[in-house]
Amino acid sequence: MSLSTILHRGIGLQLEVLTQPVAERLAETLVAFANGDGGTVLLGVDTQGQITGALQPDEADGALRAALTLCRPLVATEWQQFEDRAGLAVAIRVPRSTELHSLADGRVLVRTHAGNEPLDGAKISHLAATKASGDFELECVAGAGRSDLAEAVIRDYIQRRAARLGRDLGQTEDELLAAIGALNPQGQPTVAGLLLFGKEPQFFIPQSGLIYVRFAGADPRGPGGMPGYSRREEFNGALARVIEDCWAILLQEMRGEAVVRGLKREDRMLYPTFAVREALVNAVCHRDYRLTGRRVEIRQFDDRLEVSSPGGLPGYITLDNIVEDHFSRNPRLVNGLFEWGYIEQLGLGIDRMIEEMVQAGHPQPEFRATPYSFTVILRRGNQVGLEARRALPDWGARLNERQIRALQYLQDYGRIANREYRDLCPDVSPETLRLDLTDLVDKGLVMKIGDKKGTHYILK
Questions:
Q1: Which of 19, 109, 208, 336 has the fewest beta carbons under 10 Å from its own?
Q2: CATH code for position 227
Q3: Residue 98: pLDDT band with limits 50, 70, 90
Q4: DSSP character for 140?
Q5: What phi-psi label fits residue 276: left (phi over 0), alpha (psi between -120 and 50 degrees) or beta?
Q6: Shortest CA distance to 456 belongs to which of 113, 110, 12?
Q7: For the chain, how many structural domains are there in total?
């Protein structure tokens, strides 16, 4: 894998850049990646991805050896070296581990958008239970062979991934499939391989399809109040095809009344398209494929859309931290769909889903979790569309000049973070600005999204 390929995702959930190979910081990152979805640590480059020329081979090797002595148990790593005229860079790749890892001081860390975060006791227990289930994605599928993968689907994946990178991937088809976990070392399809590229994956994994049902009204009844539904569709095939086919139906069923602006006719959607597509993709890629007998289900009523996937919340994720934290039950499916272009940015979908729903005049999404299922409910509001987004409260005299400026910024740009607010009011202390935003939340004018470095605010 080239240095540019590693860097194209940017620093975040699966990439860390350490300008100095400090053993303690490296150990924290190794443990966090191993406990999460895996990742890569780059040594000898700056945050822009340029080789600094300050790294020596023995220095990098020594830092890695020292870091590994701080990991309990030992973290598996792969080493790759890059050289150019500027000097040396090293990529240390950490695969996702089926074991629970900690540091010598007892801390258990995971990777979040804020960096390497320690877990408390309850979250450690949840994560340990998930780790004990093994890596189902990499298991071979009995009776399946290389010929059960669809060449057209594989070519589509390769073409789209190459287009995202802007260059040829530099691997044969089977080398690439092995690298992403779709084939095992013996060339046999894995569970992830069949789900991503299978001709008929439901023949081997029947629970991997999706069902869409449209009900007329707010109850599970069909036209005229009779038991049943007004439309029912089943979607099978590779996951990318399931997503696209279901999305085509959702676009048909979500069209609301058309409006005319000037000389143009515009179709108004019942729900924000990003929110619905995010719920659909999340359900497909995060469900527990070990659970048989149930498929992903989408139920559309006149007043709401319910997207339900088999399997409870994965890892250490709870309803309280679902917006800020990220853990993939199926990291190879997630990475495959990300490289394919079906996921815009890893780990940043839930907060934007909330934003889109609220700014379009709908209630916040509802999340319901049981040990064996997870459901997202999108409810329709009374006001839908651009007019609702622009319908701001009467601010009155309750606000100071800074707060009014912040609300005007939100009206123009949709969201504001502490950094943007400091730019608007450069002569005011950060603490005063923080209290301003807290007051806007308390007054019910804005909503706080995210936590720590990812915190921002939207109009409520």
A1: 19
A2: 3.30.565.60
A3: confident
A4: B
A5: alpha
A6: 113
A7: 4
